[in-house]
Amino acid sequence: MQKELALSQEGSRRWYRDITWTQWRVLIAAWGVWVNDALDFLAITFVLRDIATAFHVTLDTASLLLLATYGVRWIGGLLFGGLSDRIGRKIPLLITLTWFTLGAVATGLSWSFTALAVFRLLLGFGMAPGFSLGAAMVAESWPEKHRAIGIGILDTGWGVGAIGAALAYEFIYPDFGWRGMFFVGLPPAVLLGLFIIFLVPESREWKSRAAAKTTTWRANPVAELFSKYPKRVSYLALLIFVLCFGSWPFQALLPTYLRAAELAPAAISQITMASALGQIFGFVASGFIAEKLGRRNAISVMIAIGALCVAGVILAVGHMALIIACSFAGGFFLIGSSGIWGTVLTENLPRDVRASGVGFLYNFGVIGGGIAPFIVLSTMHRFGFSMPDAIIGFTLVAAVAGMIVIRFVRETKGLSLEEVDRE
């Protein structure tokens, strides 16, 4: 009777009461890095047209800066992930925060388009492990039954960073121009770095594994990843590539499209902030949806609804209330679905290669996001499509492809990390 009563009380207890202050600190640190990551990266989506004008290049050429950043992330993710599997999670997290913050500052100081491209490459290399390290830290510190929720909350950092970029465009850009957008992340990065140094512990899960593997723990985790799990790496890489490709015509080109529609900076900021707010709620909700429907079904449902909402955003220009509502919904469902990606990746990879695998797979996948804006803009120019048609068309096609690919991925709802480690 007492046992049944204890189980009943445990079941009725709020989930957040199971999380310790130490576990919250880990999430806050990982979340803060992801906020700054998004802030430093997304600033460029508001000023692509300014950069094209300043350096006398076409808009589709300027969009290659997104690909430059994303194109090298898989290398950074792999190297930083391998370093993290060797020496722990905390120091690599500090290194990546410092690296991409300095890369953003260098972007604002660029003197030519070539220099700008180089700095974006360096920024991409350093920002690569921002999410993957955080996801590994949260997965290894939070209780198993709340793991998807924790990673979903972690992903809200991207939406908060998007809001920061939108606010910078509304308040910093008018006075300081496009260069000023890239200095906004410096002060919070300094404060966050101090928080990580003094208040965030190393992953106990990693420490216990390192202590147990007295002779073999120094084996190259990157080599193990590809030699032991080639099939798993392949289908997970394809999944994240397709999902990223599907979300980035909306994320990257919405501000550019709204500027082409001659909306005022304040209106553009409000619309993009509506999307960012939707993302925040979507990231949080994604964890609960994934626990309810399973990982595969949750992603499929969210990207299907989200793609239709993106079409609503594009077609509703001229109706401010409607476009804000659709923008919020698009952020909630389409971008918010990515709150489940980290859960899928961490639950499919054993601990010895988890950081390496998540770092590589997530950042290989986002190459799809980097190439999507260029493909959309190039298709427009080559075949005479309008920007609305191109954004809607590519988003819908990618959503259908994502719903197909996800069916080949193992469902991991209810699977413990120990079960993954024993495979």
Structure write-up:
- There is one protein chain.
- By secondary structure, this protein is mainly α.
- It has a single domain, classed as MFS general substrate transporter like domains (Growth Hormone, Chain: A).
- Helices cover 81% and strands 0% of the residues.
- The protein is built from 22 helices and no strands.
- The longest helix is centred in the middle third of the chain and has 31 residues, at 230-260.
- The relative contact order is 0.15.
- The model has no long low-confidence stretch (mean pLDDT 83).
- The chain crosses the membrane at residues 26-49, 61-81, 93-111, 117-139, 151-172, 178-200, 235-254, 266-290, 297-316, 322-345, 357-378, 390-409.
- This is Major facilitator transporter.
- InterPro entries: MFS, MFS_dom, MFS_trans_sf.
What's the helix and strand layout?
Elements: H1 2-12, H2 21-46, H3 48-54, H4 59-71, H5 73-87, H6 90-108, H7 113-127, H8 129-141, H9 147-171, H10 173-180, H11 186-199, H12 204-212, H13 221-228, H14 230-260, H15 265-293, H16 295-315, H17 320-335, H18 341-348, H19 354-365, H20 367-383, H21 387-405, H22 417-422
